Amino acid sequence: MVWARLNHVSPDLIIRIIQAPRGLSAEEKRNKLLEIFHESKDFFQLKELEKIAPKLKGIVSQSVKETLQSLVDDGLVQTDKIGSSNFFWSFPSQRGSIVRNRLDTSRNAQSSHNSQLEELEASIEREKAIRPESALRTVALEKLSAANADIKTLEAELRVYGACDPVKVEAKRRAVILAHEAAIRWTDNYSILITHFTRQNGVDTQEIRKFLGINEDYEDIY
């Protein structure tokens, strides 16, 4: 069906369609925008770049701001505010310096990782020398693996019981004991305070209890 339609299109039109310029990729826009800075070695405002970028490098003006910001974020373009205007600039040596710094950082990281790898390999060899393979060691490792599997099974079974977990039960029992001891302690403090107050002011204990809304069984803690 498509080929049938193409048979009615002139060869010149097909060639023009094939040769039509494609849009720039994000990386191409970045490179071309950097070229404006490096070739001119000048300072620009955003409005100036939006005006000259389409003419000089074929960058759509609407995408200049986003492309410029990505270069600023990567440290390839510098910016500063002078008065009420923001100015942008970049020099060829600046990009080379950034690339060299990144390369040095990568090399240092690689060296560190290689050192760690060598240490780990040496540690593995030392452990192998200390623990040579033997029938007894193989049996012991199998028992250890089986024991770990049993522990996982028991832990899973214990989680099913939830509140009946002995550890949780013991923690709750201990919390109840502490709460009971605290209640007794504060009740004793209350009794001491009431006694002191009645002696100092000559007030009947029952009147104080009635005023504070305290029942007769307040001190009955079992």
TrEMBL record:
One GO MF term attached to the UniProt entry: double-stranded DNA binding
Places the protein is found: Nucleus
GO CC aspect terms: nucleus
UniProt entry keywords in alphabetical sequence: Coiled coil, Nucleus
Entry keyword annotation includes Oxidoreductase: no
InterPro entries (alphabetical): LZ3wCH, Mnd1, Mnd1_HTH
GO biological process: reciprocal meiotic recombination
One Pfam family from the record: LZ3wCH
Mnd1 HTH domain mapped to chain residues: 33-92
All residue ranges annotated as the Leucine zipper with capping helix domain in the record: 167-220
Function: Required for proper homologous chromosome pairing and efficient cross-over and intragenic recombination during meiosis.
Family: Belongs to the MND1 family.
The name this protein goes by in its record: Meiotic nuclear division protein 1
Taxonomic placement: Eukaryota, Fungi, Dikarya, Basidiomycota, Agaricomycotina
